[in-house]
Write a structure and sequence with these properties.
This protein is mainly alpha-helical. The chain has a domain of about 90 residues: Four Helix Bundle (Hemerythrin (Met), subunit A) (Up-down Bundle). It has four helices and no strands. Helix 1 runs antiparallel to helix 2 and helix 3 runs antiparallel to helix 4.
């Protein structure tokens, strides 16, 4: 599994959502890399896209609420990163529908999604955890 315990922020709802995102992205990549024909993959690809369009919005909302609750000083910059990713997912989804389920587009999307998720959770989101620890808003038990 792509998830590593070091990615945990110590906020149960956020950590659970991150784990679910990692699980879904890993499953998405396995579908893309499988030996099935593209026509066989399309329903699963479509399901993943629909999930991502909804779940990233829900997750980002929860994560941003946590940031506001702890008065995280980089909230606005972090929100912009989230907004940019939501726009990317929506744009790719629209392009995919308009292209009649273009396989190459999904291969690119899978790679970018994985890289973004790892980099974001391992770097940007860790800054939130570090801030919360520094402010005594959670136990330093990582």
């Amino acid at each position: 599994m792509l998830w590593k315990d070091k990615y945990e922020l110590g906020v149960p709802v956020i950590d659970a959502q991150h784990k679910e995102l990692f699980k879904r992205v890993e499953s998405f990549l396995q579908i893309l890399r499988s030996g099935d024909s593209w026509d066989e993959k399309v329903p699963k690809i479509n399901e993943t896209l629909e999930f991502m369009k909804k779940y990233v919005v829900e997750h980002f909302r929860d994560e941003e609420e946590y940031q506001r609750n702890i008065n995280y000083p980089r909230y606005e910059a972090h929100k912009q990163i989230h907004d940019s990713m939501v726009n990317y997912v929506q744009d790719v989804s629209k392009q995919y529908e308009q292209s009649n389920n273009n396989e190459y587009l999904m291969q690119q999307f899978g790679g970018k999604l994985l890289a973004w998720l790892i980099n974001h959770v391992a770097a940007e989101d860790q800054l939130i955890a570090d801030y919360a620890i520094k402010k005594g808003m959670r136990d330093n038990d990582r």
